[in-house]
Every structure is written in C-alpha cells, then in structure tokens.
C-alpha cells in the first residue's frame, strides 16, 4: 500500500465523521439549553470546539444564531471533494500510480 492509498483511507473517514459532527453541532445550536459538556453531547462538542472557537471570533452570530458550524461543514465538504472526489487530487494520484 502506498502513501496515497493510506492517506485516502485515513482522510476519507476523518472528513466524513467531522462533517457529521458539525451537522450535529448545527442541530445542537437549535437547543441552547443543552449542556455540551454532558454525555452524549460532549462526544460531538469536544472534537469540534477547537475548529469553531476561532471562527466565532471572526464571524459574529447572525440573528443570534451561531453559523460557525455551517462554515465548517462547507470547508470539510470542499476538502473531501477536492481530495477524494471523483476528480480529487488523491484519487488522480492513485490512478497515476496504478497505470
């Protein structure tokens, strides 16, 4: 197994799980009374908060709604498509190594 295949195997699930976590964070913003440090919410809050905190400093809430998780869903989706999509960089590199 070469480095491109290993990167694809690692990055694919990581980007998918993080996108899913950010979608859960979007849903959790609808319930401000939820304590994010309590189980099971901390499973989603702990890995996503390091990404969200800096964005919150730059992008203020719109109408009282935190839009930073939406920004990160877009970023992770874009990264997944650029790297692992049908014409993604890692996919094209893997094809080049095979052929």
UniProtKB/TrEMBL annotation:
The chain crosses the membrane at residues 6-28. This is YggT family protein. It holds the Pfam family CCB3_YggT. Keywords: Membrane, Transmembrane, Transmembrane helix. Belongs to the YggT family. InterPro entries: CCB3/YggT (IPR003425). One of its GO terms (cellular component) is membrane. It comes from the Bacteria.
